[in-house]
Design a protein that fits this description.
disordered C terminus
């Protein structure tokens, strides 16, 4: 009778081990799928974070170009091969200042006035750039009929244009910096919202992953106990079989 009970318990434990092994396998497979889903969600939000940063950087670059163009300091206003300090911004300022709406410019101190035509202004600018900043020939005489007053007015206008350019550059930098500060605030807020959204998306997956970890641990603990008991019962059955075997008078 005792042997039958042991045999029944052995079979019961074997079924339990089989069920626990199946549960453990299912939990492992489920956890693997959850882990892949977590990785997929993380990659998706990482990509969105990168897209946000790229968008912010692009807006900052576009804003800088816009401010430069707005202030007359765009790439088209500057020739890298011009070493005379003349550029589009300075030339436009000088042209407006020297032309003076077609009116004569008062030289002050009783020196009378002077006027410039648009073609003459352009000729002087070309002369200045092509000769490296001189209006005189090798003998020290003014070329093309320019007068000292014209040259002085031209140089004064150029210096004034360069000062205005420096102010425009400072204004451009200030506007660009302010815009970058605003974009940084926007980016930080958008990233915080995205992180909150990611946490909400990951929370149920991570909770389920924890459940699967607990399920695997529970199965492992129960399996260890069941296997130990099964081994003990197997030994008991083996000893019972030996003790109940007929000896045919040999004992």
């Amino acid at each position: 009778m005792a042997f039958l009970l042991l045999l029944h318990e052995k079979l019961r434990l074997q079924r339990k081990i089989n069920k626990l092994t199946l549960r453990q396998l299912r939990a492992s497979n489920r956890k693997e799928r959850i882990t892949k889903n977590i990785s997929r969600v993380q990659k998706m939000y990482a990509s969105r974070q990168t897209a946000l940063q790229s968008q912010a950087k692009m807006w900052q670059s576009q804003a800088t170009v816009m401010f430069q163009n707005m202030c007359g300091l765009g790439a088209n206003s500057f020739n890298p091969m011009n070493f005379t300090g003349m550029n589009g911004f300075v030339m436009n300022f000088m042209g407006n200042m020297l032309y003076n709406g077609g009116k004569a410019i008062d030289l002050g101190e009783g020196k009378g006035s002077i006027s410039f035509g648009k073609d003459q202004i352009q000729e002087m600018m070309t002369q200045y750039q092509t000769t490296g900043g001189t209006f005189k020939d090798k003998d020290g005489k003014y070329v093309n009929g320019y007068t000292e007053d014209q040259v002085n007015a031209f140089m004064y206008a150029m210096r004034a244009g360069q000062m205005q350019q420096q102010q425009a550059q400072m204004m451009t930098q200030q506007m660009s910096q302010q815009y970058q500060n605003n974009i940084s605030i926007w980016l930080e807020a958008q990233q915080a919202l995205l992180e909150e959204e990611q946490d909400a998306a990951l929370a149920p997956l991570e909770a389920e992953e924890t459940d699967m970890d607990l399920e695997q641990e529970s199965c492992e603990t129960q399996l260890a106990d069941a296997r130990a008991r099964l081994e003990s019962i197997k030994q008991a059955c083996s000893e019972g079989i030996k003790s109940s075997a007929p000896t045919f008078g040999l004992g």
